[in-house]
Amino acid sequence: MIAAIFTKIFIVMENILTSANLQKPTLENSVHYIAHTFSFLVTGKDTDNAYSLIHCFFRKGFTPPSHLHKHEEESFYILEGTIDFQAGDKKFTAVAGELVILPREIPHSFKLVTDTAKALLIISPAGFETVFKEFGAPAQTLDLPPIPDNLPKDLFQKIHQRCIELGNVWMPEI
Question: What pTM did the predictor assign?
Fold first, then answer.
């Protein structure tokens, strides 16, 4: 009896341990998206679409327009740098060690105060991270890519169209 219980516990533990995972930014899981580097630590494929987790290395001057998400929340845990956020009528500055939670349906934007910043971005439920993968290029380095000389206008139109398909609404400045 004890042996059967021990065997059952061992099999359960073995399944749990083999499903555990260690992730970090690597060239294999990273893209250069415009002027940033995004490393996909966990995607919807890994979590049954519950959430995604992205290590973001941002560059000042290349943040998205004001927008809202119809389907997902975004949370930014700041690792390095300083970022100004606006969500609805709230404005605040976040620094390393602080978490910013942006609920769905709330217009928001962010701008870097420092030249660069790093953050962990949680998107819940997952799905919107596909935009970064679709329009990013395989990372050549984990550092920031070169600043683009000029970005084709049709690129932003394609990104905007994909965002609309995923329930993301771009807005005038808030």
Answer: 0.83
